[in-house]
Design brief:
Helix content is 40%, strand content 19%. It is of the alpha/beta class and 290 residues long. 22% of the residues are buried. Residues 249-264, 272-290 have a biased composition (Basic and acidic residues).
């Protein structure tokens, strides 16, 4: 009954199934591993910004450029405070306020944006404490440049002079003449009575839409694998039922599978009958009329 599995048609079906199932399982496992990697990055980033779990502070130059490994690490830098800006519409502990951002001119000739603290209310230069004078050494959490529209950074334009919507070299380069580091630091202890701004996890390490897309793709690939198995069993069942009906004589002649050998034999018999008919016809014509 199962001899049909050896036909070329079923050979093709079986090979496809044997290749499709491992491929679907592999792709599903790969997508699941991507989701697990993002989960681990999120946990690592969350642990990294906890002051109790971080390594001792290191010089700024050793932590640049900022990436997932160095974001949130304690960095130290020495220089003199320069121009001061405000970052409005920043929420902390459920309250609206603003950051006080001051540029620290280092001995390397570049300026590092330093968030000295947070104040509640509307951004007002008169409320922002002046930065310390003379040479200072700051210690804070290293952060990557912000991107407007992500990680809670608002998309703003047309701000008053002395304010910036995002803390990034690309934004600040249009506001100050300094050569800037592509990073910034938030002090662990707020300066001049301001509240310290906690470090945030690096972008791309949270449970964002991409992470849940990986999880969704995982389910899709495993569903595809199950669908291939389901269709193979369904085709097999239909073929078995067809063979069984054929053996019981329940299949009409026009739907009955024709064996190539039988078809060839029938063709030979028909051809032989045709030749016999042609040979007999002249013999009848040769007989004299009675």
């Amino acid at each position: 009954m199962y001899r049909f599995l050896l036909t070329p048609r079923w050979w093709g079906i079986n090979v496809f199934v044997l290749l499709a199932i491992p491929f679907c399982v592999f792709m599903g496992s790969w997508q699941l591993s991507r989701f697990e990697d993002r989960m681990q990055d999120h946990r690592t980033a969350t642990e990294r910004v906890d002051p109790e779990d971080r390594a001792p502070a290191r010089p700024l130059a050793e932590l640049l450029p900022v990436d997932k490994e160095t974001s949130g690490e304690l960095a130290t830098a020495t220089g003199r405070y320069g121009e001061q800006l405000l970052v409005p519409d920043r929420e902390l502990d459920g309250k609206d306020g603003f950051y006080v951002l001051t540029l620290l001119r280092t001995d390397a000739g570049k300026s590092l944006p330093v968030v000295r603290g947070w104040l509640p209310g509307t951004a007002d230069p008169a409320r922002a404490p002046a930065a310390p004078t003379g040479e200072v050494t700051v210690t804070g959490s290293l952060q990557a440049s912000e991107t407007p529209g992500s990680n809670g950074v608002p998309v703003q334009g047309g701000l008053p002079a002395g304010q910036t919507g995002a803390i990034s070299a690309a934004t600040l380069v249009n506001l100050v003449p300094d050569d800037l580091y592509d990073a910034w630091v938030t002090l662990d202890k707020g300066d001049a009575g301001m509240k310290a701004v906690p470090a945030t996890a690096p972008q791309g390490s949270g449970l964002d839409l991409k992470a849940f897309q990986n999880l969704g793709y995982t389910g899709e690939w495993f569903v595809f694998a199950g669908f291939v198995v389901f269709m193979w069993f369904r085709l097999l069942r239909r073929e078995i039922e067809f063979v069984r009906d054929e053996q019981l004589g329940l299949v009409p002649d026009d739907e009955r599978a024709t064996d190539p050998k039988e078809a060839s034999a029938e063709g030979d018999d028909a051809a032989e009958d045709g030749r016999s008919g042609e040979e007999r016809a002249p013999s009848r014509e040769a007989e004299p009329a009675q």
